[in-house]
Amino acid sequence: MKSFVSTENNQSFARHLRQALPYFEEFQGQILVFHLGVFPAPEEGSRIIEDLVLLNRAGLQIILVHGPGEPSIFSNSPSESHFNEIRRSIASANWELQTRIHSISQKVQTFSAHLIKAVPSEIHPEERRLPKGRVSGILLDPLHEALNSNKLIIIPSFGIGEKGRLWLLDSWETSIEVASAAHAKKLVHLGTQNQAHFSRLPSNEMNTSAMRLWLEQEKMPEEAGRVWQGLLNACERGVERCHDLDSGVDGSLLQEILTPGGIGLMVTNSDYRKIRSARMSDLQRISELLGESSTEKTVVYRSREYLGQHVDDFHVFCIDEEITGCVEFHTSRDSPAALIGSLTVSASHRNQGIGRELVEAVIQEAQKREFRNLFALTMSQSSIFVQCGFEEVEPEELPDWKLKDFDYPESRVFRFKINRS
After folding, report:
1. How far apart, in whole angstroms, are the C-alpha atoms of residue 25 and residue 28?
2. What is the average pLDDT score of the chain?
3. Is 37 or 307 the better-scoring residue by pLDDT?
4. Which domain holds residue 395?
5. Beta 133-138 vs 186-191: how paired, if at all?
6. Side-chain-facing half-sphere of 35: CA atoms under 13 Å
7. pLDDT above 70 coverage of the chain, percent
8. CATH code at 295?
9. How many domains does the chain have?
10. In sequence order, which ranges of 42-126 are alpha helices (DSSP H)?
């Protein structure tokens, strides 16, 4: 018997799916490296592995790096017999991961091999008998060959040294090395131990400069500090985006990867939030934004025909791949004045400074192009233009080319005088 789902739920599902599609397109063929800081237990309701399988089936290239199934095994006193115990634990975790992946989808092919070359690390006095190593190289050819075959790569925290000697590696440091060498798009740490420290962060989205400064000023617990320093290091070595996620929250991985809001910490070396010129492919989204605001009577309605003719005048604000705001920068040949219009931000992203950033971007462009005055028209009661240095003036102050077709008496007019150095 077919079950019925409410229209509201259907609309919510469709909205989330549309929101995710640009991310699938962006990450198609890109390498994503995941570090299992805590081995996910199915009996505890963790679905991280199911989500990784879903991403792999959607065409994303997945590399999974793991250590022993039980990290507390490292707390035992180091010895050769202890090393054998750790080795068995890592091998068991590797086998369990592959078995679990195949139980989720028999169409997913896994690939696990010794792809890490290692040399001895510094031997601490208390660890003389524990053969710890550090990564000295990655066997990239077999790695890329497996990725190009859409296999889900599983890398245990072992390294092979001279004469085939096996070295025990730190799984987090190994993840960083793999992500850097493979030119991964993302590096994601999946754990639960750092969730209590998320509230200390000034923002859940930080660039490398802000993250470096914050880590220098804050005294973090050793493990959390080590993970977050690793995110920073990976970004500085070329990984575009690095994340720390609470793997205990169901859906956290998909929310972080496939939505603009995210749920954990993200460190990025790129312009995650950016303003760019509009493209023809943006017209549908711009039309939706302006339609929403025109219904609220804060901007003038613009037809698709108008948008198509004036697309070069629009700038859009993007959070990752999602357009969350737009503004129009209108000019006229030989006029010393320019005009801001169609300033709008999606309802779910308001009060985050996006409107102000759009206005400031247009001010900078007007200064660069040596305009003398920048006018703004709005039907909103917001004080954003005053906050950006505009003053409210009478409509008669508008340039002639705009005044002649000014037929919106409910609009307020603001002017920004540009200082020419």
Report:
1. 5
2. 85
3. 307
4. 274-417
5. unpaired
6. 28
7. 85
8. 3.40.630.30
9. 2
10. 48-57, 80-104
Report in angstroms the alpha-carbon separations of 383 from 34, 143, 329, 356.
Answer: 44, 55, 19, 10
292 and 195 within one domain? no
Segment 139-167 mean pLDDT = 93
Please tell me whether residues 36 and 178 are part of one structural domain: yes
Short-list 178, 185, 321, 319, CA closest to 240: 185
pLDDT at position 106 over 80 = yes
Q: Evaluate if residue 1 carries a pLDDT over 70.
A: no
Summarised one tens digit per residue, pLDDT across range 345-395 is: 988 788 778 899 999 999 999 999 999 999 998 877 777 899 899 999 998
| Distance between first and last Cα of the chain | 75
Q: Is 410 exposed, middle or buried (0-12, 13-18, 19+ CB in 10 A)?
A: exposed
**Count of Cβ atoms closer than 10 Å to residue 114 Cβ:** 15
Extract the tokens encoding 126: 């208390």
Residue 281 has pLDDT above 60, yes or no: yes
Q: Which two tokens stand for residue 236?
A: 């500085």
Q: How many residues does the chain have?
A: 421
The CA angle 229-235-236, to the nearest 5 degrees, is 90
CA distances from 233 to 5, 208, 237, 238, 345 (A): 46, 9, 6, 9, 34
- Same domain membership, residue 186 and residue 83: yes
The helix/strand/coil state of 119 is strand
C-alpha to C-alpha distance for 124 and 121, rounded to whole angstroms: 9
Residues 6+ apart with CB under 8 A from 205: 262, 266, 268, 272, 273
pTM to 2 decimals? 0.67
Distance CA 270, CA 267 (A): 9
In whole angstroms, how far apart are CA 113 and each of 36, 53, 96, 135? 17, 19, 15, 15
Neighbouring-strand partners of residue 34: 64, 188
- Last-in-domain residue among 269, 303, 329: 269
Could you write out the DSSP letters of every residue in 168-183?
Answer: E--HHHHHHHHHHHTT
Reduced to 3 states (helix: H, G, I; strand: E, B; else coil), residue 41 is: coil
Task: Name the residue type at position 386.
Answer: V
Amino acid occupying residue 10:
N
Give the single-character DSSP code of 132.
Answer: B
**Confidence band, pLDDT 50/70/90 cuts, at residue 125:** very low
